[in-house]
């Protein structure tokens, strides 16, 4: 795993949609930008939620930097996640499961 350290910068509740919206700073010194799967796992461990409830929306890494700003949505349930998030974001985070099932 290339995530060395993860730090919560912002967090807010979006009760209307049933999720938390968070911004993390991910340190990945000595390696490239981490994969979404690695970030999802680190966020889930840090917040004590199931990995299937976490979606990485955006990863911003400046050229040559060893830190990335990561925008994440944490849902109350996987069902709600799959209803709310766009299909391309689900594919990026779950590896094409949507194409197989639907």
Written description of the protein model:
The structure is a single chain. The protein has helices at residues 36-47, 78-84, 87-94, 97-101, and strands at residues 5-14, 19-27, 54-61, 67-75. With 102 residues, the chain is an alpha+beta fold. The protein has one domain (5-101): Alpha-Beta Plaits. It has a 4-stranded antiparallel β-sheet. It is globular and about 40 Å long. Mean pLDDT is 89; it is low at 97-102.
Secondary structure: elements and pairs:
Layout: E1 5-14, E2 19-27, H1 36-47, E3 54-61, E4 67-75, H2 78-84, H3 87-94, H4 97-101
Antiparallel strand pairs: 1-2, 2-4, 3-4
Q: Outline of this structure?
A:
With 102 residues, the protein is an alpha+beta fold. It has four helices and four strands, in the order ββαββααα.
Radius of gyration: 13 Å
What structural category arises from helix and sheet content?
alpha+beta
The share of residues in helices is 25-40%
User: What coarse outline follows from CA principal-axis ratios?
Assistant: globular
The CATH topology is given as: Alpha-Beta Plaits
The CATH architecture can be given as 2-Layer Sandwich
| Low-pLDDT sequence parts | 97-102
Largest sheet: 4 strands, antiparallel
Percent of residues in beta strands? Answer: 35-45%
Q: Give me the side-by-side strand order of the main sheet.
A: 1-2-4-3
Give the distance, in angstroms, between the N- and C-terminal Cα atoms.
31 Å
CATH C-level = Alpha Beta
How many extended strands? 4
The CATH homologous superfamily is called: RRM (RNA recognition motif) domain
Mean pLDDT: 89
